[in-house]
Amino acid sequence: MPKQSAAAMAHPNIAFIKYWGNRDRELRIPANSSLSMNLEGLETKTLVRFDSELAQDEFILNEEPASHEAAGRVTAFLDVVRGMANLPERASVASKNNFPSGAGVASSASAFAALALAASRAAGLVLDTNALSRLARRGSGSASRSVPDGFVEWHAGENDADSYAESVAPADHWALRDCIVVVSEAHKAIGSSEGHDLADSSPFQEARIAGAQERLENCRRAIVERDFATLADVVELDSLMMHSVMMSSMPALFYWEPATLGVLKAVRAWRADGLEACATVDAGPNVHVICPEAQASEIVEQLTRLPGVLRVLESSVGGGAKWLEL
Amino acid sequence: MPKQSAAAMAHPNIAFIKYWGNRDRELRIPANSSLSMNLEGLETKTLVRFDSELAQDEFILNEEPASHEAAGRVTAFLDVVRGMANLPERASVASKNNFPSGAGVASSASAFAALALAASRAAGLVLDTNALSRLARRGSGSASRSVPDGFVEWHAGENDADSYAESVAPADHWALRDCIVVVSEAHKAIGSSEGHDLADSSPFQEARIAGAQERLENCRRAIVERDFATLADVVELDSLMMHSVMMSSMPALFYWEPATLGVLKAVRAWRADGLEACATVDAGPNVHVICPEAQASEIVEQLTRLPGVLRVLESSVGGGAKWLEL
To answer: Measured between CA atoms, how close is B234 to chain A, in angstroms?
Structure first.
């Protein structure tokens, strides 16, 4: 007899080695492995209830009925869960983020990680972390990385069975901070899902993929050894390479704003002056400045003074997704 | 008996297909062929006089003694000419640009093109356009393109004999304008010569080179057929690819300023709205906006209003380098 209701929480994550482009669009098998850090303090909480009385799925997002597009994506995900559990019932899903959509952090990773935990348990499935990560991946690739704890590597794999994320170090391994620099609150013109499809149109994607595993191994080693200088170089290079692919794809995707570049250049200059900080940018204009805890307050203060910076949000290393008591 | 004095004039040029990285550093044999447009109205004029009384070369730049570095580069170039002419005499060189160094245009191309014409004639050499272009290349790679007329292709070649530029269309073939958008007058931190040496350290240089010939052929065809839409796409892609190589080289070279990116994005938006304009950036922060003559005044007016734009200079298609009467 399935438990009909369950709730879960997950953090978003910031990728140090980026995911851009799929080998299999439908299953979201990525073109390369990626590596990220979960973001403490930022949370999506999701409640799922399967109910035989429902004629269709219902999706309430931040206390309002979700858009048609968002609801469709949730239903497609629930179909995967129903298929696994052999369950015909429709579900009611209520999800809430404690961070605004203009906070500089995409919510799809935490959303589908929390949904994977809540929906699978509500459907009566008993899944381990690997299986939950694989399931979350079906909703949003980066969601696979929000399932395990702390610093997380998503093994690209080649099929649904071997494409999952696992922790490379727990949240308390290294006290890093992510200073999230918001330079724009505008909704991105081209979402990541569409963007992934354009990756192969760039003359640089092949070279980006070819070197991704080496960059990931350097990054993983830098994390394990708490080697900030190595981390900084590889994080900035990998981010720059993704944006080069984006800007040279057809059509070209320019996610950077002028203020984005200003922050990137400032962080490089500060690092040249001895400050431990590096910058990375996802598929949007906002900048994530990574630094050791000890330097965070100085860096946040300096970031706040840069032209075009609306605000800076601070986050530390977060744990994995978890179920919540009802 | 050599003519002991000669003078010449050359225009700078803006590359549509960029030169970045050398196959042979000493001879300046480039990693890929490139294509440019000479810039009318901007001129370097140079007078060379070989004189047996001189104990060493003298170089007056813009009516002042040149820096030690600039003088050394001129002497190295004159050594090539002396070697060709079997001439032992030192020379006095006076060169003048009618555009300031903060105008958004590098002067090395026009400088070495004018110097190649003046010095070779003063040394008694009789060189055709190909040979002059090859000689100019020894001073600065892009100077090879300032020797022929109008729209110019520099064949990369493999050695000193086959690496030269020639005109693909005369200056009056297509009434394009270059609206030179100055966003910074600061001297660039890393000059092009040093930058070329870093090109191979980028994981993207190989892909940039691999596609360069195809881009060049598309660009050449667009010029021959006066096909602005094709020109715009390939010019922007090629510029973006060079800057991706720069930003991903080790150490990374960030020539763009925030205002550079603002101009690039504005031009893309205007083009999406039907305006014929495209943008390209050399190894510096300023933006060259290329457009048909008919749209230039509207574009200059709009450019002037963008944040961070100091001024906009307009140039049309220039002829080749030529000797001046003394």
So the answer is: 11
Domains of chain A: 4-173 (3.30.230.10), 176-316 (3.30.70.890)
- CB distance from A20 to chain B under 8 Å? no
Q: Does A326 touch chain B (CB under 8 A)?
A: no
Reading chain B (326 residues) residue by residue, the pLDDT tens digits are 446 999 999 999 999 999 999 999 999 999 999 999 999 999 999 999 999 999 999 999 999 999 999 999 999 999 999 999 999 999 999 999 999 877 778 899 999 999 999 999 999 999 999 999 999 999 999 999 999 999 999 999 999 999 999 999 999 999 999 999 999 988 766 777 789 999 999 999 999 999 999 999 999 999 999 999 999 999 999 999 999 999 999 999 999 999 999 999 999 999 999 999 999 999 999 999 999 999 999 999 999 999 999 999 999 999 999 999 98
Instruction: Kindly state the DSSP code that residue A146 receives in the 8-state scheme.
Output: G
CA distance B102 to B85: 36
Q: Is B139 helix (H, G, I), strand (E, B) or coil?
A: helix
Q: Which of B35, B40, B36, B33 is nearest to B10 (CA)?
A: B40
If residue A164 lies in a helix (H) or strand (E), which one and from where to where?
Answer: strand A164-169
Q: Cβ of B141 under 8 Å from any chain A Cβ?
A: no
Three-state SS at A205: helix
Look-up of token digits 């999701």: A46
Question: Residue-wise over A276-307: b if at least 16 C-beta within 10 A, else e?
Answer: bbbbbbbbbbbbbbbbbeebbeebbebbeebe
Instruction: Indicate yes or no: CB of B258 within 8 angstroms of CB of A262.
Output: yes
**CA B133 distance to own-chain centroid:** 12
Please report residues of A whose CB lies closer than 8 A to that of B262: 258
Q: Hey, is B242 helix, strand or coil? A: helix
Is B208's Cβ below 8 Å from some Cβ in A? yes
